[in-house]
Write a structure and sequence with these properties.
Blueprint: H1 6-11, E1 20-25, E2 28-32, E3 38-46, E4 49-57
Antiparallel strand pairs: 1-2, 2-3, 3-4
């Protein structure tokens, strides 16, 4: 179960000059860029190197094809 609540994601404010990472657990983060863009990223380790991979933009309505009815 994730640690980030929808309210936390919505109200997250950017830091001037650097990215802000809000952890959800198991390597999943919400990244808030200095200009306010929010994206999801995964941090993982492969062959001894840590890597961050952006998996999509944050959308308060959910992912496309989300199965939760309106």
């Amino acid at each position: 179960m994730g640690k980030l609540a929808a309210v936390t994601c919505e109200s997250a404010k950017p830091d001037k000059g650097r990215d802000r990472l809000l952890g959800d657990g198991d390597g999943l983060f919400l990244r808030v860029r200095p200009h306010g863009t929010k994206t999801w990223l995964i941090e993982y380790e492969f062959s001894g190197r840590r890597t961050k991979y952006t998996i999509g933009a944050y959308d308060r309505k959910g992912a496309p094809g989300d199965s939760i009815p309106d």
